[in-house]
Recover the amino acids of this structure.
């Protein structure tokens, strides 16, 4: 008999958490983050050898990017360190960790992203009557992501 999907193992956004490591090494839960996404982008170059109809992909490089949206509750975790660093002539790096917990068995998927550099346009303040104030963030990850814990196959 074919195994069916067991919905007890399906994860939703409520099963995820995002943490940031502070300058003193403390990991702080970012409860105000309402969306989080980490993406790997692999770039290939085409190669078509003489006499071949087939074009082959040759790996060249990869990038990792993070995006998240925070409900503005506090400014001291990401925005203040950014302002302080810019005032001193540099852009700060952050360490960000995403974590998923499978509800049925408590197994974790935890990935750590080090040397995260803010990237692109940063919305410093956007206010609209009747709307929740949010700040989107984009980061480029300048270190290989680490898979600290992973979700094994359910046996």
């Amino acid at each position: 008999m074919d195994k069916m999907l067991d919905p007890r193992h399906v994860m939703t956004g409520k099963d995820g958490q995002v943490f940031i490591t502070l300058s003193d090494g403390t990991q702080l839960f970012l409860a105000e983050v309402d969306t989080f996404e980490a993406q790997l982008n692999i770039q290939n170059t085409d190669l078509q050898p003489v006499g071949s109809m087939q074009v082959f992909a040759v790996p060249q490089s990869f990038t990792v990017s993070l995006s998240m949206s925070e409900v503005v509750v506090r400014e001291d975790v990401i925005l203040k360190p950014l302002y302080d660093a810019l005032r001193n002539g540099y852009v700060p790096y952050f360490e960000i960790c995403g974590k998923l917990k499978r509800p049925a068995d408590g197994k974790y998927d935890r990935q750590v992203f080090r040397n995260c550099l803010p990237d692109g346009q940063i919305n410093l303040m956007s206010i609209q009557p009747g709307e929740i104030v949010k700040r989107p963030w984009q980061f480029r990850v300048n270190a290989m992501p680490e898979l600290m814990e992973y979700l094994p196959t359910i046996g």
Summary: DSSP finds one helix and eight strands in the chain. The longest helix spans residues 79-87.
